[in-house]
Specification:
By secondary structure, the protein is of the alpha/beta class. It is about 35% helix and about 20% strand. It has a 5-stranded parallel sheet, with helices on both faces. It has a 5-stranded parallel sheet with strand order 6-14-7-8-9.
Length: about 450
């Protein structure tokens, strides 16, 4: 059973769910059927192995559970807060045939926090005797790849353009969903492996990858994610129309200076970042927050738990709608006009596939517009190497082994899958590490 969302905690930018107590964790783990081939473990993209750590909790081996999570998923603490478990491990839970699935995320959080509190031993430091690997980007995929390579005794250096590690979880996900200490704990575990992180290191010179390889790095892994927010032309040049990255970063690091009291906010989009933006606006004191999406309620890309959170915070859904015009006082938007829409072709959730429904015009008074319609890779991708193959808006092309078209260059995470979950990015980083290891060993055998 999951703990209820505490909306007052959200307004204080504290974790919106209380952790499981020891007694609650024991009760929850005792519901486990101890499946031989645990389907919950098969459902985890990062291989965190919930079947094993739940079994360990059930038999009172709490430190062992913490070790299992940490050893299998270097971002195990972060994933305990962020994983869409209803689509992954909990969806596969065998107990679901009888009653509610095991609260796997709650048990994962309990185990990681137990391990942190009782200070389980640090991970074994890399001997760094297998060669140098460069990783560009210290988000979930880069961290996942770095940890696995360090365990294989590679000398791993991560080049991170920001001044802190963590990528999107660190910079964009609100504190009420992901406490800062969860990220700090996982980064501490990464550093215990001997991984070197170089902050404020922008790799954007022309042919930067060739330069890294020339410096003695045996392989390069690109995990720069999606860093540029998409915008709507209709809102160009208005000073109170922000992209969600700018808005969420302001909320994350300066929410005390954001005053939305008695103001109305419109968030454009229906995915996870749109919900985060809408709930953050409410937490900052907004009077009314509208979540406006082309998708209808049963089509929203946001996870079930995120939609539940929005409802708990009294977000007004304007689903199946499109903004068609703005009212403005010079460069300040004062209102929005829109219409309901329907899809021309079913299952094609593209703006070009909508048809306006006559007679459904509506108008909203707003003081702030947040655009949360997606992201694309940064401009640096085109500068890494002139021959690096990409598609669409700069998504890097890779094969099943996460190899790019360039010799010794690999990529994974959002810059490859165009945006997915943290746990999938970690999993892709781990798989890429195995591919890098195999590549280097095969090259050595051929030499």
């Amino acid at each position: 059973m999951k703990k209820a969302i505490d909306t007052e905690k959200i307004k204080q930018f504290q974790s919106m769910r209380e952790p499981l107590t020891l007694q609650a964790a024991i009760r929850e783990s005792n519901r486990c059927l101890l499946c031989f081939d645990a389907p919950c473990s098969a459902g985890c993209p990062a291989g965190t192995d919930p079947g094993k750590f739940i079994r360990q909790i059930k038999f009172y081996n709490y430190k062992g559970a913490a070790r299992t999570i940490r050893n299998h998923n270097i971002l195990g603490s972060v994933c305990a807060f962020l994983c869409p478990v209803e689509k992954l491990c909990e969806r596969a839970c065998s107990v679901k045939a009888l009653e509610d699935p095991i609260n796997i995320s709650g048990l994962q959080r309990f185990a990681t926090e137990y391990g942190k509190h009782f200070q389980i031993e640090p991970l074994r430091k890399s001997e760094k005797n297998q060669g140098k690997i460069a990783i560009i980007g210290c988000g979930p995929a880069g961290v996942g790849c770095a940890a696995e390579l360090a365990k294989m005794n590679y000398d791993v250096t991560i080049f991170e353009r920001e001044d802190m590690a963590g990528g999107v979880p660190k910079w964009n996900i609100p504190e009420f969903r992901l406490p800062a200490e969860a990220i700090a704990y996982d980064v501490e575990n990464l550093l215990s492996l001997g991984v070197d992180i170089r902050f404020n290191a922008t790799i954007e010179n022309n042919e930067a990858i060739s330069m890294l390889l020339a410096e003695g790095y045996m392989a390069v892994f690109i995990s720069t994610g999606l860093s540029v927010a998409l915008k709507i032309d209709l809102f160009d040049n208005y000073i109170n129309a922000l992209d969600y990255i700018s808005f969420l970063r302001s909320v994350k690091f300066d929410h005390n200076n954001i005053d939305l009291k008695n103001k109305n906010v419109a968030v454009i989009g229906g995915g996870s970042v749109a919900v985060d933006s809408a709930v953050s606006a409410k937490a900052c004191g907004a009077n009314k927050v509208y979540l406006i999406s082309l998708e209808h309620l049963d089509e929203l890309p946001a996870d079930k738990g995120e939609i539940e959170l929005a409802r708990e915070m009294n977000i007004t859904f304007k689903a199946g709608c499109q903004i068609t015009d703005v009212n403005a006082n010079e460069k300040i938007i004062t209102g929005l006009k829109g219409m309901e829409v329907e899809w021309i072709k079913p299952e094609n959730f593209s703006p070009s596939n909508v048809r306006k429904v006559e007679g459904t015009t509506f108008a909203l008074n707003v003081d702030l517009v947040v655009q949360a319609i997606g992201t694309k890779p940064g401009y640096e991708i085109s500068r890494f190497h002139k021959s690096l193959q990409t598609r669409g808006k700069g998504i890097i092309e890779v094969n099943d082994l996460f190899e790019t078209n360039l010799e010794g260059v690999f990529a994974g995470g959002d810059v490859v899958n165009a945006g997915s979950t943290v746990v999938q990015a970690v999993g892709e980083g781990k798989k890429a590490a195995l591919s890098i290891d195999n590549y280097l060993k095969n090259r050595e055998n051929k030499a």
